Amino acid sequence: MTHNTPLSPRPLRHLSDVHRRVLTAAQLRAHGVPTAEQTEQCRPGGPWRELLPHVILLHPGPPTGEERLHGALLYAARATEPGVPVQPTAGSPHRPQYQEAVLTGLAALTLHGFSSTPALTALDHVDVLVPRQRRLRSARYVRVLRTSDLPVPQTVTGLPVAPVPRALADAVAELTDAEAVRRLLTEAVRGGHCEPAAVVRELTLAKLLNRPHVVDAVDALLAEGRSIAEDRLYRMVREYGLPDPVWNVDLRLPGGPHLGGLDAYWPGQAVAVELDTRAPRQGRRQGQGQEDDALWSEYARKREHLERLGITVVYITPRKLRDSLEQQAAVVRTALMASGDRDPAAYVVVLPR
Predict the structure, then answer these.
(1) Do 237 and 245 meet the contact criterion of CB atoms below 8 Å apart?
(2) Rounded to 5 degrees, what angle do the CA atoms 267, 235, 182 make?
(3) What is the reported pTM?
(4) How confident is the model at residue 296 (pLDDT cuts 50, 70, 90)?
(5) How far apart, in whole angstroms, are the C-alpha atoms of residue 261 and residue 228?
(6) How far apart are CA 129 and CA 131, in angstroms?
(7) What is the CA radius of gyration of the chain?
(8) CATH number for domain 240-352, candidates 2.40.50, 3.30.70, 3.40.50, 3.40.960
(9) Three-class SS state of 93
């Protein structure tokens, strides 16, 4: 015969920080607070209040921004077993765990450190991603977004948060103000949060590039990203003592066809650098490293043509310039040094781009 042994009541005085001021009804029962007492404590004028369905705020005042986020995650998270709260561990005795729930949208961007998003307490709603098969409805200030591809979250202040490109796409999906969209996308790149290609990829997957105000913002984003990458390329040449190239040029065969534009070219060594700022507008979230086939083919044809003429082409992505400037300088230096071991390149005409 099986008996349901009640958990021993545990005092709540140790529940002092933000992780413990908001609990689910199930967690309170695990602390020995029965449902009837919870209802009594949450009556108007009582010491507690129901923040969300089955989520209790353990003080009568308005919730802080952090409490709203924790409450949203507690509401949306799947328990390890139906009706059973996640048990404490030795390493984290009271910190809640949020399964199948990820913060996204403006709340996530605020946590990532964006200055153009509202403060947590000023947000009208908090967006939470959950798997598509979950039967969970939006409630009060929590907006539930179902997705077939729950992103791997980043941990920010102990909370599961969508990566910046995904959070941007979810935020932009709800914005109709063109200037607000432009500010968010520009800050994402200018603030070093992510590269333009990753943002455009997520906007494409969210089917947002059919909205004129989003397309305009993306054009500004790509221009911003290229400008930043060009500045980093100039800095690489200067700081790592590379010979001065000719900048932003077009190559042509004498009396022949146009060979393509280059960001930097060393005529004496027949070495070229081109910034790979492709921003694929189609694809799938799984395998984000796969580039758009048509764009890749165009780059490949150009590179093969130039290399048949004896010109070495080095492609550098904005991300590599941001994360490994010294390494990219070494790649270019190696190409320049190796030029003496190659057959002379074909003569080409170098024109300003």
Answers:
(1) yes
(2) 110
(3) 0.75
(4) low
(5) 18
(6) 7
(7) 27
(8) 3.40.960
(9) coil
